[in-house]
Amino acid sequence: MSAWRSSGRRLNSAPTSRVTASSCAPITTACGESSTLWGSGNPRLARWRLRLSELEFDVAYKPGMTHYLADSIPPFQDTALDLYGPLTRMAAGHRFILVITDRFTKLVRALPMDGTTAVDCASAVLDYWVAAYGPPDRLLSDGGPHITSHFWGQVCNLLSIEPKVTSPSHPQTNGQTERFNRTMHTILNHYVTEHPRSWDQLLGALTLA
What we know:
- By secondary structure, the protein is an alpha/beta fold.
- The protein has two domains: 38 residues, no CATH class; 129 residues, Ribonuclease H-like superfamily/Ribonuclease H (Nucleotidyltransferase, domain 5).
- The chain contains six helices and seven strands, in the order αββαβββαβαβαα.
- The radius of gyration is 33 Å and the shape is elongated.
- The N terminus is likely disordered.
């Protein structure tokens, strides 16, 4: 604080005589015109200009890192899926929920499943997603055995889909689907207590929450 106070006293002790525009050296602008804006009618700016003129320093521009905007992704071209369950077995045999999310439009489809094999998941994706919206360019998942199987790879290769797998140490990559699973879990907890044998019939309405 003492240093600031001493510097404040030095600034306050600066000459208070009014500096006219004629006493200030002209400044050349980018257009080549001279200007005496620093001292024109403002003694405070004139005093600062005189003090800065006593210092020898150069102002150099140091370019930083160039940032590029990512290319926009069209709707239904970047899709994520995840399996939720097991839950109470329904009369139709459903125990799992296959959650498919479009990462651009945030559209979600929740499909009841009675099995989690690669054939079951591929059939659900083809019948309820690809048939309605077309095959996506990329399909992100958590890398379960149904995704890493040879059959799933052949299906993706046939439809020109690039399968993407999240890292076990960083599941946030598929955070949009995981966040919906949390919302779905909360809704199911309230509903299953009253209708424990029919949760699979309201999954379509649940995705509107």
